[in-house]
Amino acid sequence: MIFLQFATYGVLGLTYLGLALGYIPGLRMNRATIALVGSAFLIALGVLNLQQAWQAIDANTIVFLLSMMVVNANLSYAGFFRRSLSVILSVTRSPLGLLIALTFGSGILSAFFLNDTLALIFTPLTLSLTQTLGLNPIPYLLAIAGATNIGSVATLSGNPQNILIGSFSGIPYLDFLRVLAPVALLGLVVQLGLLWLLYPDVRSIKACQVLPTTNQRIFKPLFNKTLVITAGLLIAFTIGLPLAESALVAASLLLITRRVKPQRILQKVDWNLLVMFSGLFILTRVTQKLNLLQPFTHAVNSAASFLGITVVLSNLISNVPAVLLLHPLIPQGDTKYWLLLAAGSTLAGNLTLFGSVANLIVVEAAADLGYKLTFWEHLRFGVPVTLSTLLLTYLWVH
């Protein structure tokens, strides 16, 4: 009995350590395989049986996330994101104007489409743009990383942790938008001001002489079909139809096509993320069964302490596991704490370079193209922007 308890706590602790680091030293494992293997060992140890583990996985969240990935993949293949960037950049030629356009463009788009997708697509396009114009790419990369996180705070479909919260809380899409959209917009203004202070080169309003021509490959039929279905999906969200079911119908309509091979769309689905989510649901059920959340129950006694716990856990074990761990502590129907959990777990991602997947996507994509965004370069931007936006969130929501 003592051995089983020791093994259970050992496996659970090692799994969360691996989730925090993103790897297990000496092994080729990522967060998805760590969550899956940890869950399997806990089932083998008898903490949960297979049926209980299966029931722990929230179907609404998995379906919603999968469906939004399919929608985003279609938008990407149709050329929507490239066209959006082209439109954003057509309004200005100056370094400051480009910074403003990229900040608000990527921030607003990430409110309605998964922020990781925006980071993945916008990073190489932004690097190409700054290289052609002879601009320092670092502030523009920081703008993309920060804005995709901050902008995604605004809606329930902006990032994976908000999708989770939408499934758990039952908050209507428009109610969530009404409260947190001002936080996102003001946060983008704060980010813009901070980059203006940190990087004098971006202050110029003098037009650059050369404006690059981006690849405008648009598949018209797919473009039009995808826009119509996506617009219908956003309307469904705003009038209060169920999130997961609406997204599933939209994704299914997009998969009925004669133009795009299905494997091209399904290759764009982040199966690693879906596997990780499933494993995390099981791990969370184990922590609840073992009553390991007891030390955090005091966090719901005040908004400030709850927000602080959210930020700390989001940086220790990343934001999605933090949301899964903390959501059972929120009293039934307490909208304020759900909003604090959503905003805190997302904005905490800007604190360090490893705080969010969007940050890592920007760094890796930049490195592949020969540009290095260092941990310390990000930290001097990340700390003030995170503290400022968290204070703004507390004052606004509280």
Automatic annotation (TrEMBL):
It comes from the Bacteria. One of its GO terms (biological process) is response to arsenic-containing substance. One of its GO terms (cellular component) is plasma membrane. This is Transporter. GO terms for molecular function: arsenite transmembrane transporter activity. The keyword Transmembrane applies. InterPro entries: Arsenical_pump_ArsB, Cit_transptr-like_dom. PANTHER family: TRANSPORTER ARSB-RELATED (PTHR43302). Pfam families: CitMHS. Belongs to the ArsB family. The chain crosses the membrane at residues 6-25, 32-50, 56-75, 96-118, 138-158, 179-199, 227-257, 269-286, 306-326, 338-361, 381-397. Keywords: Arsenical resistance, Cell membrane, Membrane, Transmembrane, Transmembrane helix, Transport. Residues 29-330 form the Citrate transporter-like domain. It is found in: Cell membrane. The lineage of its organism: Bacteria, Bacillati, Cyanobacteriota, Cyanophyceae, Nostocales. It is a multi-pass membrane protein.
